[in-house]
Amino acid sequence: MSSSRETRSRTLTGIAAAPGLAAGPAAVWRDQTVTVPRNSGRQPATETARLTAARAAARDEIRRLRAKVAAEAGQAEAAIFDAHEMFLDDTALLQHAQQAIETGVNAEAAWADAIEFFAAQLEQLPDPTLRARAADVRDVGGRVLDHLLGRRTAGVQLDVPSIVVARDLAPSQIASFPVARVLAFCTAEGGPTSHTAILAKAWGKPAVVGLGKAVLELSDGTLVQVDGTRGEVVVDPDEQTARAFSQRRALAERQAVSERSAAADPATTRDHRRMEVVANIGAVEEAAVALEYGAEGVGLLRTEFLYLNRRTAPTEEDHLAVYTAILRAMGSRPVVARTMDIGGDKPVPYLDLPKEANPFLGWRAIRISLQRPELLAVQLRALLRASPGHDLRIMFPMIASPEELRAAKAELERARRDVASAGHPVAISLQVGMMVEVPSAAVLADQFAREADFFSIGTNDLTQYTLAADRTNERVAYLSDACHPAVLRQIRSVVQAAHAAGRWVGVCGELAGDPDAVPLLLGLDLDELSMAPVAIPAAKAIIRRWSWGDAQQLAARALDVDSAMAVRNLVRASPPA
Ligand code: PEP
Ligand code: MG
């Protein structure tokens, strides 16, 4: 799209990364190019000392940013800075820089070369998550370089509340913005799982990513409207567009306030069908947030956070402390803990996971757990020890065949015996279920229903495997819409098989909190929806507006259209009667 200023009210389309509407002046964050001097005439020992001092200063800054993000966005979001701190001490990186220093190169050039060497190596890797780490290495590298060159590294100034526009934003750049003055984020690059998306969601700021170069041609102060729900940015809106947008925003704000005020009430349809609405959480702090937003329990506790960004595997006591804190916060409400779902896009360096051509089709989740049973046993023992007095449920991720479920249940029984023989009490009744996120599990749901107490459908993975579209690859993001009828039909058959066997079924993928999908999932007869805490008030409000009968009719029609977009259009054109 042309960037000429006389074309008014241009619309740029990107990827919806964090929901919400915002309008304001653009503050364009431009990448700085730096020329690094190579020789100083100083002794190598002096250069080594300068590099050490710059790393120490960078470490202090990273720790301050970590504390800021932990307080404002949560521990899980702050964990990225632990990885940054680890890069600062990376032996291979330091050796590379030191060797150059010994040959007479100054600290800044030696460090800049080492960073570029490692970032370029990461960029060659097939795994998109590891490739994305190159940006983290450059981010940390730039921070150290700033200190060596004496450049200003203070937080970004925003004189007025602004829409931040950038090529892409590294976590430490995002964390440097004064949150209160950021209205929204727009980036030229990045996908829906980029750091910008994760932090923007945690801060409740709308974000649109992957907008292309055109967005970088904006001048500072240009008025832009950001629709983080649709993934659209309107530049220089004319009066009529601006008026319509501000009406939509005012309406959305009023609606959000009223939804929040009813968040603690149950979600019951007009014809008295109750839907359980629970939260997806990934850290202790999020349990309290979930309750604030009206969660009736936890439908997915992603336990991976316990394994990431550390140098050794968590001990049984590490696990126990976390599970006990979460169960205490939730009281008698149900908490579904998913056993470790690592591998795929969640690398864990100390486990020495082999590099694979197709990590999502490879050694991940239950596959690792069953081949490294000692790791799983530590987690299971801790879960069992934390269970007395609570409604803890355990589920296994990525189950593809019934033997895997049987083997996982056998591990749980072994852990139960170990815990009992060590004299620890265990909750008497404990439901054991599985995630349905591999198409084979959906197809064989009737067989699984004989052995699982419940199903939780992971639509994020179920969609990537059904449509054969890597969930982290922005080029195939157009295929990764869980509203696709091929996914909805699998949900329907899983629910039917489960209910025939007297089992309950939930959805815990992103689809559960998607406003378009909520009436469909109601109509498909799900028992529970589990979603990000912030999505709960709106989902409950949608359920209350529908009758179950109407939702069933809508779902039946949705199964017969031929694309995710057609499903969404159908829902949008069918407001509750
Ligand atoms: C899913 O796949 O839908 C899911 C909830 O699991 P995760 O997103 O953690 O893979
Ligand atoms: Mg999954």
Automatic annotation (TrEMBL):
Residue numbers annotated as active site: H195 (tele-phosphohistidine intermediate), C508 (proton donor)
Alphabetical list of PROSITE patterns matching this protein: PEP_ENZYMES_2
Residues engaged in binding Mg(2+): E437, D461
Sequence ranges assigned to domain PEP-utilising enzyme mobile in this UniProt record: 161-231
Coiled-coil stretches noted in the UniProt entry, renumbered to this chain: 48-75
Residues noted as binding phosphoenolpyruvate in the record, renumbered to the chain: R302, R338, N460, D461, R471
Cross-referenced Pfam families: PEP-utilisers_N (PF05524), PEP-utilizers (PF00391), PEP-utilizers_C (PF02896)
Cellular component per GO, a single term: cytoplasm
Highest taxon, organism lineage: Bacteria
Broad class of where this protein is predominantly found: cytoplasm
Required co-factors: Mg(2+)
GO biological process: phosphoenolpyruvate-dependent sugar phosphotransferase system
Cellular localisation: Cytoplasm
One GO MF term: phosphoenolpyruvate-protein phosphotransferase activity
Catalytic activity line of the entry: L-histidyl-[protein] + phosphoenolpyruvate = N(pros)-phospho-L-histidyl-[protein] + pyruvate
Keywords on record: Coiled coil, Cytoplasm, Kinase, Magnesium, Metal-binding, Phosphotransferase system, Pyruvate, Sugar transport, Transferase, Transport
EC number: 2.7.3.9
Domain PEP-utilising enzyme C-terminal: 262-545
Enzyme class: transferase
Residue span, Phosphotransferase system enzyme I N-terminal domain: 13-133
Role of this protein: General (non sugar-specific) component of the phosphoenolpyruvate-dependent sugar phosphotransferase system (sugar PTS). This major carbohydrate active-transport system catalyzes the phosphorylation of incoming sugar substrates concomitantly with their translocation across the cell membrane. Enzyme I transfers the phosphoryl group from phosphoenolpyruvate (PEP) to the phosphoryl carrier protein (HPr).
UniProt record similarity statement: Belongs to the PEP-utilizing enzyme family.
Protein name: Phosphoenolpyruvate-protein phosphotransferase
Lineage of the species this protein comes from: Bacteria, Bacillati, Candidatus Sysuimicrobiota, Candidatus Sysuimicrobiia, Candidatus Sysuimicrobiales
